[in-house]
Amino acid sequence: MIQSTHPSKVNLRTPEVMERVQEQVEHHYHSSLVERLRAAGSVLESGNTTIRLAKQFGFCYGVERAIDLAYAARKVFPDARLFLIGEIIHNPEVNAQIAALGIRNLLDPSGRPHVEDLGPDDVVIVPAFGTTVPLVEEIKRHGCRIVDTTCGDVMSVWKRVRQNAAEEVTSIIHGKASHEETRATASRALGKGNGHYLVVLNLREASRVGEFIAGRISSGDFLSEFAGRFSEGFDPAKHLLRIGVANQTTMLREETEAVQALLREAIITRDGNDSNFRLFDTICGATQERQDALRELLAEPLDLLLVVGGYNSSNTTHLAEMGEQKGISTWFVRNQECLESGGVIRHFDLHRKEEVSTSLAWLPPAGQQARIGITAGASCPNNLIEQVLLRVLELRGEPLPFA
Ligand code: SF4
């Protein structure tokens, strides 16, 4: 263990630092057009085009805080080497701005952390979705200063899964096994080394867990089906006796509720009651608000929906899924450059899980009525939403608003 000579706690958020941070953050991400539209009821009429913004979209409190802290760290430690564990949030434009501040990625392209040459003068930023316990311990061993931007809502999930471990309850984590937040949560589900976890992605996988509980799948088959998504030493015959469901904070609420109901039912069927089942609602407030606002938007008559955000953003992906499930023409785009023309759009295909270019009259031609919904995930800055909105009007040949 390398001893640091630096104070263990530094207050980054002094009024003087935050004033400078706010100025820079506003400059990078603010949109006065989006603010004006929100104040005007989130509806824009321009010629034959009606654009409706969801009532809630874009940066959440956790993301704002993480960005503020990263910018503040740069100001408070102007000469130190600053490293970030992966991405501060899942938005490429924001991450490019962070890199432009001289904050380097601690992970290589394969996701492996490079901690070997870290020392006490270095500063490491933990992103909004947190990181794993072993990595934090490793960084501490090098004596680095840590700026932890982990969202409080993520930490509440950690509290729940630690409690599960203490009570010998296995945490069933509804989430994406490769997502940083789920990996961080899984590492906390081990508790003091006695806990266990299993990650399920969706309802289909949860139903396989239910089938095991009902005795319809062998342990061997179960373990190979879920390979890489459970804790070391996990024995389904033993560790699915007492379970607690937790979830990645940004999952689709309906799916999480269905997973919880299915597993509870499986336990009741086996045991006759649910005393071996724990349930905690850990969908975060911001995710919930954005999903609710989109549901409200989808109740309006719309010709198409644009969902703006990073393709690896979990909460944004779920917004796009909601549009598709509603049967509306939904386009998940990274930024305005994806709107190449009214006949060509680059977008993320949720099923192929890659960006594709589609040649199709996705946008009603100029002169025809068009009703367009726009929303964005919790990691998408307002200036990107503004650029998408302006691009739509440009392609439609409509005048710019508030000009
Ligand atoms: S999406 Fe939720 S959990 Fe994630 S940073 Fe925002 S508020 Fe926190």
Provide a short characterization of the protein structure.
The chain has 403 residues and is of the alpha/beta class. The chain contains 14 helices and 16 strands. The strands form four sheets. It has a five-stranded mixed sheet with strand order 1-2-16-11-12, sandwiched between helices. It has a four-stranded parallel sheet with strand order 4-3-5-6. Strands 8-7-9-10 form a four-stranded parallel sheet, with helices on both faces.
Q: How would you sum up this structure, described in words?
A:
It is a single chain. By secondary structure, the protein is an alpha/beta fold. It folds into three domains: about 25-60 and about 285-395, 3-Layer(aba) Sandwich (Cobalt-precorrin-4 Transmethylase, domain 1); about 60-150, Rossmann fold (3-Layer(aba) Sandwich); about 155-280, 4-hydroxy-3-methylbut-2-enyl diphosphate reductase, catalytic domain (Cobalt-precorrin-4 Transmethylase, domain 1, 3-Layer(aba) Sandwich). Helix content is about 40%, strand content about 20%. It has 14 helices and 16 strands. The strands form four sheets. It has a five-stranded mixed beta sheet with strand order 1-2-16-11-12, sandwiched between helices. α1 (about 15-30) packs across α3, α6 runs parallel beside α7 and α8 packs parallel to α11. It is globular, with a radius of gyration of 23 Å. The protein binds iron/sulfur cluster. The site of iron/sulfur cluster (SF4) has 15 residues, from α3, α6 and α12. The site of iron/sulfur cluster has 15 residues, from α3, α6 and α12.
